[in-house]
Amino acid sequence: MSDISAVKALVFDVFGTVVDWRTSLINDFTKWSETRGIKADWTALVDGWRAVYSASMDEVRKNPQNGYVILDALHRRSLEKLVAQLEIKGLTDADLHHLTLGWHRLHPWADSVAGLTRLKAKYIISPLSNGNVALLTNMAKFAGLPWDLIMSAELFEHYKPDPETYLGAAKLLCLPPEQVMMVAAHNYDLKNAQKHGLKTAFVARPTEYGPLQKYDFEATGEWDIVAKDFGEIASRMGC
């Protein structure tokens, strides 16, 4: 049992950990398309979109000479390719913009807001996400997420799991890494946070990818906390 008594801030992965991106996007696009008379396999689009997420960020890493590119821009590039591949017809530029901003309109998991609110009473809470600042801010307003501040990969111009993100968050908070806890539903995220000295908390989200989920059903590392939901994390943290 590791010592978590010194923790002063909790930072959260967002997509999949705090919000249910897959269900949110499929429902959002299905309802919207009915008003526009557009036919598409939105489940295929959403799953395809997320499938190229990591590769789109890798392109930024591999081409530093081109500068940092925010996630909204990467999402738009990926969307345009997928729309062509899936032969979705009749979308205007405004429609593509609306779909891209779907990532700003994600709904939280049932336990997220209550758990965050409990934690906020005692700790600093913030996202530490690959989403850009505007995306995370708009999502917080939409979903009622009670963050104390917004920390994004955009601030560090590095995507997770680059060390600059984890260490940059601690630096912005003027805290040593061991006083910051990373909360995620993804073991790889926690592995990298732990490697750079942060404390770790795992919460399983076994339906994040729907029937396509292949991993992260359970903790696979020596994390400081393993919990079933944010409420249990709050209880473990004395809230």
From TrEMBL:
Family annotation (PANTHER family): HALOACID DEHALOGENASE, TYPE II (AFU_ORTHOLOGUE AFUA_2G07750)-RELATED, HYDROLASE, HALOACID DELAHOGENASE-RELATED
Keyword flag Transmembrane helix: no
InterPro entries (alphabetical): 2-HAD, HAD-like_sf, HAD-SF_hydro_IA, HAD_sf, S-2-haloacid_dehalogenase
CDD domains referenced in this protein's UniProt entry, alphabetically: HAD_L2-DEX
Keyword presence, Signal: no
NCBIfam families xref list: HAD-SF-IA-v2 (TIGR01493), HAD_type_II (TIGR01428)
A GO term, aspect molecular function: hydrolase activity, acting on acid halide bonds, in C-halide compounds
SUPFAM superfamilies linked to this entry: HAD-like
Pfam family name, one: Hydrolase
UniProt-recorded name of the protein: Haloacid dehalogenase
Organism: Bradyrhizobium macuxiense
Keywords: Hydrolase
